[in-house]
């Protein structure tokens, strides 16, 4: 990416983070609803810390930290950078204030603008690579800002709405009760295929190296599982039948007392769903979302199907570029608009659990230095998700993108696409 293009992408990404905060009151920035979620104020500061630590400290000859305390407060998990304030206690910090954090952001933006104005050299080309990583890092946190705010607002019995519904051709805020169309299945021959990123453009290190895998013939469902289909699973005792669950999944169902996806509550005999637009009745045609790997796996077993492996998903998606996927700013998944046999809803609605544990590809080597901690050290006890969600910034994903979460995580926009072996 050319420097001018990089400077523009940097400015747009930084601006989007602040635009996503516009619906918030100052109190909303500070509270932490659970250890997995962070306050908005922390996201805003941490993404700034990333540029300060990995770009400014490297490139400025007279570098001084904006505030030396921030080096600890806003370091997430980089042990090779130094000490970190505990993740589970981020919501206890009332200082620096929200205004202080915005001042921090703008000071770092000014210093970054100065760097973009300098002439290119081999060193600045390496810095440009890190800036591109920082932009993609901030985009990941933009999605987390939305999912963490959703969880925070869910904890409030006033059910605050982050945003209002706007006109959209495919759905309404009153709820659609139409039956979903039966899904189509698309068959693939399998054989030796290539997956992974070839590094001709930006990708995270965990997406490569590109390599061969052997696939057996498989079928994959054309669209995502709908809320109506998931309700049928629930009404058939899905959450009460241990034979449908992995052992660890059944323990989790019993311990957590799960009876429905996260953000669902039953009121007067009707299921309501909390969204970033507030509480409203579940809509049967929409993709179900906020289900864990365990729930996705149990639903697949109940359906007589299974989850796709990440290699199957990527092979199926390999001819569909994300740019052609619909993008909307509803921050809630929409019903499928295409009932043909064409693969639909790969991107921009909900992340799709795969049956693949998150492990390194053959030949994977983490980057040297602290940035090697970005992805590689999390390759344990997590499952890969593919696609992207309605909270993912436009242009952030691609067919090789590997998202990952623990098998009981539910606060992200996560969902089910079924696969099966040929009959
Ligand atoms: Fe981060």
Describe this structure in words.
By secondary structure, the protein is an alpha+beta fold. The protein has 2 domains: 3-154, Four Helix Bundle (Hemerythrin (Met), subunit A); 171-420, paralog of FGE (formylglycine-generating enzyme), CATH 3.90.1580.10. 31% of the residues lie in helices and 12% in strands. The protein has 9 helices and 12 strands. It has helices at 3-20, 40-59, 70-73, 98-116, 122-154, 227-235, 247-256, 293-302, 310-317; strands at 185-188, 191-195, 211-215, 218-221, 264-267, 270-275, 278-281, 351-357, 383-386, 403-405, 414-415, 419-420. The strands form 4 sheets. A 4-stranded mixed β-sheet has the order 10-9-8-11. The chain has a 3-stranded antiparallel β-sheet with strand order 1-4-12, covered by helices on one side. The chain has a 3-stranded antiparallel β-sheet with strand order 5-6-7, with no helix packed on it. A hairpin with a 2-residue loop joins strand 5 (264-267) and strand 6 (270-275). Helix 2 runs parallel beside helix 4. The longest helix has 33 residues, at 122-154. The radius of gyration is 22 Å and the shape is globular. The structure holds fe (ii) ion. Fe (ii) ion is lined by residues 46, 76, 137, 141.
């Amino acid at each position: 990416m050319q420097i001018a293009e990089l400077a523009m992408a940097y400015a747009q990404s930084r601006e989007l983070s602040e635009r996503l905060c516009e619906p918030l009151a100052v109190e909303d920035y500070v509270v932490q609803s659970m250890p997995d979620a962070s306050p908005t104020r922390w996201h805003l500061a941490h993404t700034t810390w990333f540029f300060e630590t990995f770009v400014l400290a490297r490139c400025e000859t007279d570098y001084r930290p904006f505030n030396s305390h921030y080096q600890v407060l806003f370091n997430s998990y980089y042990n090779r950078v130094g000490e970190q304030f505990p993740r589970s206690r981020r919501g206890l910090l009332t200082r620096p204030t929200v205004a202080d954090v915005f001042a921090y952001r703008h000071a770092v933006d000014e210093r970054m603008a100065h760097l973009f104005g300098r002439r290119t050299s081999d060193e600045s080309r390496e810095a440009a690579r890190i800036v591109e990583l920082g932009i993609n890092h901030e985009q990941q946190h933009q999605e987390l800002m939305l999912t963490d705010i959703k969880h925070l607002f869910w904890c409030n019995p006033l059910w605050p709405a982050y945003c209002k519904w706007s006109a959209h051709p495919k759905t309404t805020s009153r709820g659609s009760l139409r039956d979903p169309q039966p899904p189509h299945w698309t068959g693939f021959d399998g054989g030796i295929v290539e997956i992974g990123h070839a590094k001709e453009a930006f990708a995270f290190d965990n997406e490569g190296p590109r390599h061969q895998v052997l696939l057996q013939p498989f079928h994959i469902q054309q669209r995502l599982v709908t809320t109506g289909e998931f309700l049928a699973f629930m009404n058939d005792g899905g959450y009460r039948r241990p034979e449908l669950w992995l052992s660890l999944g059944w323990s989790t169902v019993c311990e957590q007392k799960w009876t429905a996806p996260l953000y669902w509550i039953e009121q007067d005999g009707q299921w309501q769903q909390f969204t970033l637009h507030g509480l409203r009745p579940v809509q049967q045609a929409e993709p179900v979302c906020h289900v864990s790997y365990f729930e996705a796996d149990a639903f697949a077993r109940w359906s007589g199907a299974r989850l796709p492996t990440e290699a199957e998903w990527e092979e199926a998606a390999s001819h569909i570029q994300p740019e052609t996927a619909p993008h909307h700013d509803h921050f809630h998944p929409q019903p499928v608009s295409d009932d043909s046999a064409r693969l639909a809803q790969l991107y921009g609605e909900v992340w799709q659990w795969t049956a693949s544990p998150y492990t390194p590809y053959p030949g994977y080597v983490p980057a040297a230095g602290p940035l090697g901690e970005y992805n590689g050290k999390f390759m344990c006890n997590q499952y890969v998700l593919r696609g992207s969600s309605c909270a993912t910034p436009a242009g952030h994903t691609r067919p090789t993108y590997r998202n990952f979460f623990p098998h009981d995580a539910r606060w992200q926009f996560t969902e089910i696409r079924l696969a099966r072996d040929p009959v």
